[in-house]
Write a structure and sequence with these properties.
Elements: H1 15-23, E1 39-42, E2 45-48, E3 52-57, E4 60-66, H2 67-72, H3 78-81, H4 89-98, H5 100-111, H6 120-152, H7 178-187, H8 191-214, H9 229-251, E5 256-264, E6 270-280, E7 283-293, H10 299-313, E8 320-324, H11 329-332, H12 338-345
Parallel strand pairs: 5-8
Antiparallel strand pairs: 1-2, 3-4, 5-6, 6-7
Helix pairs in contact: 5-6, 6-7, 6-9, 7-8, 10-12
Bound molecules: zinc ion.
Length: 356
């Protein structure tokens, strides 16, 4: 794209030259279709976006630039080359303000102490970003606490599919599942969580309305509430990793006993448990290490599950010194039962004549 002089600055420009360049901006035609872009709404406060500067051609916008990035960004971005994505300009601008733009703003603020160019917008964007990070960390911490509590008390996280959506959440008479109900209780005394919850419900409702209109498929799309089953599952995975790391540390390279069994869960899937029993700090310690879906319930099937799990977590099969299985053939069968396969792996020959 051929750029006008106003939207170019030499890489070698000095700081006074950069600040002088900024004095020529912003170029923001008023009473145009772009009026809405010139303001950022933070908590009902209208803050001017002084960085947005528009290149015009025959009174129509040709491209949108960021004057601060043109002067202070260390590398090119959408708004130094000029964005022409007018259809999605709002979201492109939002992305810009949270990413590359921040470091350019910081560079600008360092150079422009008390200079005349109005930098309140830049400071507010920085503050807003920090506030957002702080509140997200706070929310995630609360979610971790709830999930740890539910896990410890052996309570299910979820409710029924229908009542679990945020758009139904305003109805306090419905049971929304333990996780969301705990969020509700905590939010009563937690301003950050309450604000977040209100926003998430609103967004979820809007999204639902939009989907209804467009008759598109379900799913959360780009909506991130931190309160969905996706987040819950991710947090559970993180907690699981932490617990497993602790068990691996405790067990080290010591000998241990293995307990393995399977049963059907309520969704009629066969699930196998892998429990490890070992001595830690002079005490017998017994831990549930894994719960895995069984697709093949033969001895070989169980052996594959076990091998994969141990390989993934660096646990040595040769350190097994005792096994506790049920009496079924797939577990104790002399030739192809799980026990026999473990023994083979450990270097024992199968007994060719089990009668003796
Ligand atoms: Zn920028």
């Amino acid at each position: 794209m051929h750029k006008h002089e106003n939207f170019k600055l030499q890489l070698t420009a000095t700081i006074p030259q950069k600040l002088a360049f900024l004095m020529q901006h912003p170029i923001q035609p008023i009473n145009s279709e772009y009026d809405k872009l010139y303001y950022l709404m933070i908590m009902n406060e209208k803050i001017p976006r002084k960085w947005i500067t528009i290149e015009l051609m025959c009174n129509k916008a040709k491209a949108v630039y960021c004057s601060i990035c043109l002067a202070f960004a260390v590398c090119e971005n959408t708004f130094t080359t000029g964005s022409t994505n007018f259809r999605h300009m709002h979201s492109v601008i939002k992305i810009h303000e949270t990413k590359v733009h921040i470091s350019a703003v910081e560079a600008y603020l360092r150079s422009s102490k008390n200079k005349s160019f109005d930098n309140s917008i830049s400071i507010k964007i920085l503050n807003e970003k920090n506030r957002q990070i702080y509140s997200n960390v706070h929310i995630i911490k609360q979610i971790f606490e709830i999930i740890k509590f539910l896990g410890k008390q052996n309570l299910p996280y979820r409710g029924s599919n229908v009542t679990e959506t945020l758009s139904h959440f305003v109805n306090e008479n419905l049971n929304h599942g333990n996780f969301l109900e705990m969020i509700r209780i905590i939010s009563k005394n937690d301003q950050i969580l309450r604000d977040h919850l209100e926003k998430a419900i609103l967004k979820s409702k809007r999204r639902k309305k939009k989907l209804k209109l467009s008759e598109k498929s379900k799913g959360r799309g780009s909506l991130i509430t931190l309160l969905s089953k996706t987040t819950v599952n991710k947090v559970i995975d993180v907690v699981l990793d932490q617990i497993r790391n602790l068990i691996k540390k405790e067990i080290g390279n010591k000998r241990f006993s293995l307990q393995m069994d399977s049963t059907q869960d309520i969704s009629v899937y066969d699930q196998a448990t892998i429990c490890l029993r070992y001595i830690y700090n002079g005490k017998i310690t017994e831990r549930l290490f894994a719960l895995t879906k069984v697709t093949n319930s033969s001895g070989k099937g169980f052996f594959d599950i076990l091998s994969e799990c141990f390989l993934k977590h660096g646990i040595q099969m040769r350190n097994i010194i005792g096994e506790l299985f049920n009496g079924a053939a797939n577990m104790r069968g002399e030739l192809v039962g799980l026990l026999a396969l473990i023994r083979q792996q450990q270097g024992f020959e199968p007994n060719p004549n089990p009668e003796k």
